[in-house]
């Protein structure tokens, strides 16, 4: 290596050709005095405060890395999805979560689009059995418990259409599906019913096929006819005192 003068040569030899050096602070072996000096200036400087965010770092090396990741890169654009991230660190984290390629769950072999999706799946589906803290019902995993709680332990809900109060979100959902679906046409007799609930009730009464009277096996046209017959002919009559 060519140096500009004798002093530079002397300094170079002192730093680069001194033989292996042991760091007195961590006992790490370095190849020469120059490497030892650099090592000490990075790792054994004591705690450092970031001038930009006041975060405390353990040494100068950590501070340098921190500043490079969080304060000196500016906004970064993901080359895969064009999403803008605040700095290099968040870009790196984003890529390691969302642009890893497909991932296979080791527990159930289900395929997921990326590492983040796999992580979310494992956290919800492979947590083991969970007990609902409200009703003590047991569920197979955290996902099932979360769904149960969001359906049944939401507190009372008011239907926005008819203002009817229901005990929970599931009851509200069922109510809306049955009562606020709009007019329905019976596929068997073409009769128009006001909603899905009325249609279901209509079909269970009138389109069930013939029913047999249990007392002497007379056949009635349908469930409604059987119900009416039993009410008229076989109900208990009050005995006059």
From TrEMBL:
Region named Disordered: 221-241
Signal peptide start and end residues: none
Domain C2H2-type residue range list: 21-49, 48-77, 76-104, 103-131, 130-158, 157-185, 184-212
GO MF, one annotated term: RNA polymerase II cis-regulatory region sequence-specific DNA binding
Keywords of the record: Metal-binding, Repeat, Zinc, Zinc-finger
Source species of the chain: invertebrate metagenome
Name of the protein in its database record: C2H2-type domain-containing protein
LIM zinc-binding domain sequence ranges: 21-88
Xref: InterPro entries: Snail/Krueppel_Znf, Znf_C2H2_type, Znf_LIM
Pfam families attached to this UniProt entry: zf-C2H2_6 (PF13912)
Residue ranges with Basic residues bias: 229-241
